[in-house]
Amino acid sequence: MLxxxxxxxxxxVPASDENSSEERLLTxxxxxxxxxxxxxxxxxxxxxSELRQIEHTLTGVLGIxxxxxxxxxDAAQNELQQATCLHELTSIINxxxxxxxxxxxxxAMWKVVLTDQYIDPNEQHLMRKIKGLLHIxxxxxxxxxxxxxxxxxxxxxxxx
Length: 160
What we know:
The protein is mainly α. Helices cover 73% and strands 0% of the residues. The chain has one domain (2-158): TerB-like, CATH 1.10.3680. The chain has helices at residues 2-10, 22-41, 48-60, 69-82, 86-96, 99-114, 121-133, 138-158. The radius of gyration is 15 Å and the shape is globular.
């Protein structure tokens, strides 16, 4: 598991950072997963479709082996419980990930939020807060939301 996660996450870390360790890469994976969980819980209704979307992100974007998803979710949940604020989680992401990877994370969070096809005011507030904490410009924030809607729309239409 460690090598698979390390390989995929290494693509998110700037090339100039040669001192990245497995522990730092795993910590960023857990921080990103914790943010995805936070997005799912923002409307106080963490349902199975949101969990499936998070699992899809873990396997498809972060490259985590499907057999290791539960362990990653548990570790991220622990990370989320230990964090006293979102700044702790986003500062890990900011220090380790390139800008493009942060946009991918924001888009993945939008997919979780939009899974139920309704944006709760708490979800909207969370997403704006994450945008600021990750230092993402408004245009990229809107672009991530639009791409997430389009991706979910295409997958919903493909199933009908």
